Amino acid sequence: MRFSKRSGLRQGRQEHPRLRLWPVAGLVLVPVAALFLADCSSIEVQGTKPAPVDIPAAAPKTVGIDAANAEHKRMVSLFGGEYHDAKAERYLNDILVKLANAGDRPSEPYRVTILNSPVVNAFALPPNNLYATRGLLALANDASEIAAVMAHEIAHITARHAMQRAEQEKRAAVISQAASVIQSRQKGEEVEASAKQSFASFSRQQELDADEIGIKDMARAGFDPYGATRFLVSLGRWSTFRASLVGQSNADKPDLLATHPSTPERVAQATIVARQIGAPGIGTADRAGYLAAIDGLLFGDDPSEGSIRGRRFVHPRLGFTFVAPDGFVLENSAQAILGVKGGGNEALRLDSIHLAQSTSLESYIASGWVDGLIQSSVASTEINTMKAATATARAGEWNFLLAVIRFDPSEVYRLIFAVRSLNDDAEARFQALINSFRRIAPDEASAVHPLRLTMIVAKDGDSVETLASRMVVPDRPLDYFLLLNGIERNGSLRSGETYKIVTE
Q1: Cα dihedral sign for 472, 473, 474, 479?
Q2: Distances (CA, A) of 400 to 8, 34, 90, 415
Q3: Phi-psi domain of 244 (left: phi exceeds 0; alpha: psi -120 through 50; beta: other)
Q4: Pairing of β 129-133 and β 111-115
C-alpha cells in the first residue's frame, strides 16, 4: 500500500468521491467491493500513478525502441518497480536461453525482469522482455512450471495474437456498424452481440494455442511438459484461495487469472498435449535447483509499503499502525488497506487524503464524500493525541461508521467500518479499531522485518501441519503452505524433500 503525504485530491480543489454499494455476483461481500472499487483517494502517490490496465497478451515484435522503453517503464511502475535477486534472475535467464534455442527458428533470448509485487502475474512484451512477479515465482515449484509460464507468454508473441485480436476487434466493429445501418436496431444489436461472443471464443482459443505452443517449446528445450498442467492447477487453487480471503483480487494490479483464466478446459488440454509428447517422467523438472534459486525471495508485501501481521497493519515508513477487529483478514493495495470479516457481514477501509489545515475535520466529514451521512452524528474527538471526527452513515441495508484522523497538519486518514447490523457491539468494535490507530516510534518501525521464502528439508516425523506451524503469514498458514508447495489438502510430505515456508 503506497500511502503518501500527498493526497488523491487534485490540486486546486477538493474531490469528494462517494461511497456506494457495489453488487458482486450476489455475494454478501457487497460492501467489500465498494471499498475496493470506490475510487477514493490514494494511500500514496509517488509521482504519477499509472492507471490500471489490462496486460496485453502480446504485441507485434516490430516495436520502436522508444515505444518499447516507455511500455517497459510503465509496466514496471504498475507492478511496484523492479525486484533484484541475482541468483533468481540468472536461473530464469538460463531457462529463457534454452527456450530460445529450442524454437523452430532459434532467436535472441528474452531477458527477465522480476517485478516487486506479491500478485501472481507474468507477461512478455516485444522485442525481448519477459516479466514475472515475485508472487508468481513463489507459486511455482520447479523449473518446468516456470518454463511453462514463460514459454506460454512468448508464444502469444510468436503467434502474433495481439495482431489477430486487433483485427478481430476491428472486424467486429465494422460488422456491427454495417448492421446498424442496413438492418433494424434490434437486428443490429443481435449481430453485435454475436460478434462479441465470437471474439470471446477467439480469445479462449488463443490461450489454448499459446498453451500448446509453449508446452511443445519447453519440451524441446528439455523441460517436463507436465509442468504446465501442474502450474495451471496451482493457479486455479490460488484463485479460489484468494477469493475465500477477500472476495476479490488486487484491483489495481491485474493478476494472471484476469488475463489468462485457468479453466478445467486448459488443464485438460495441457495434459493431452503433454501426453502426446511422452509419458510422465520425461524432461527436467529441477525442483531442487529452482527452489535454491528463489530461496530468500521477498514474500508478500514489501515492508516499505506496509506489513500485515495477522490483524495488525504497520507502516514503518509512514509511522503508523492499527489493529483490525477479531475475525478480519486484511489486504494491502495501492489505494487503501482493506479488510473483510468471515461471512462478509463486516468490512473496513483505511486510506489517506490531503486536507488543508484550515479545513475542520467536522466540516470535511459532512462535506458529501459518503452517501447517507447522518448529519446529527458528526462529533469531534481525539484519538491518541490526534484530532479526529466521527460520524455514521446508512445506505440500504448497510451502516457505515466513519472516522477522519489528522495525522499531520495536512495529512488526514479516513477509516470506514461497514456493518450490516449497527448495535452496541458493532460500535464497540469500531471504537476499539479507531483507538488502535496510533503513531509508532522509530525503534518499533525498525523492528518490522520482511517476510521471505525459506527452504526447509522435511525430516522423518515432519508433517504438513508441523511445517505449516512455522509459517509467518497473515492468516491460514496451513492453506498457504499447501498452496506454495503444490500439495493437495490430504497430501503428505516426503522425507528428504525440500519445501517452501515463509519466515521473518
Answers
A1: negative
A2: 21, 12, 50, 10
A3: alpha
A4: parallel
User: Which of these, 209, 103, 90, lies nearest to 143 by C-alpha position?
Assistant: 90
SS3 3: coil
Taking only the tens place, the pLDDT of each residue in 62-120 is 445 676 788 888 888 888 899 999 999 999 999 999 999 987 667 789 999 999 999 89
CB of 227 closer than 8 Å to CB of 216: no
Q: How many CA atoms lie within 13 A of 378 on its CB side?
A: 16
Q: Using the 8-state DSSP alphabet, how is residue 436 labeled?
A: T
Cβ–Cβ < 8 Å for 161, 57: yes
User: How far is it, in rounded angstroms, from Cα 116 to Cα 96?
Assistant: 20
**What's the CA gap between 414 and 402, in Å, rounded?**
7
Closest CA relative to residue 34, chosen from 17, 24, 20: 20
Cβ pair 313, 333 in contact under 8 A: no
Give this prediction's pTM.
0.73
Residue 339 CA to chain centroid, in angstroms? 15
Q: Pick the closest to residue 253 from 5, 55, 33 (CA basis).
A: 55
Strand order in the sheet with 312-315: 307-309, 312-315, 320-323, 438-439
Query: Pick from 121, 61, 130: which is nearest to 95 by CA?
Result: 130
Phi and psi based region of residue 478 (left: phi greater than 0; alpha: psi -120 to 50; beta: remaining): alpha
Euclidean distance between CA atoms 490 and 467, whole angstroms: 15
To the question of domain 30-44+318-443 being in CATH 3.40.1000.10, the answer is yes
pLDDT digits (tens, 9 = 90+) for 402-433: 999 999 999 999 999 999 989 999 999 999 99
> Domain coordinates of the chain in residue numbers?
30-44+318-443, 65-285, 451-503
| Distant-in-sequence, close-in-space partners of 476: CB < 8 Å, separation ≥ 6 | 245
User: In 251-328, where does DSSP find H-type helix?
Assistant: 256-259, 264-277, 287-294
Residues with Cβ within 8 Å of 327's Cβ and at least 6 positions away in sequence, in order, are 341, 342, 346
The amino acid occupying position 159 is: A
Which grid cell sits at 329? 483478514
CA–CA separation, 503 vs 472, rounded Å? 5
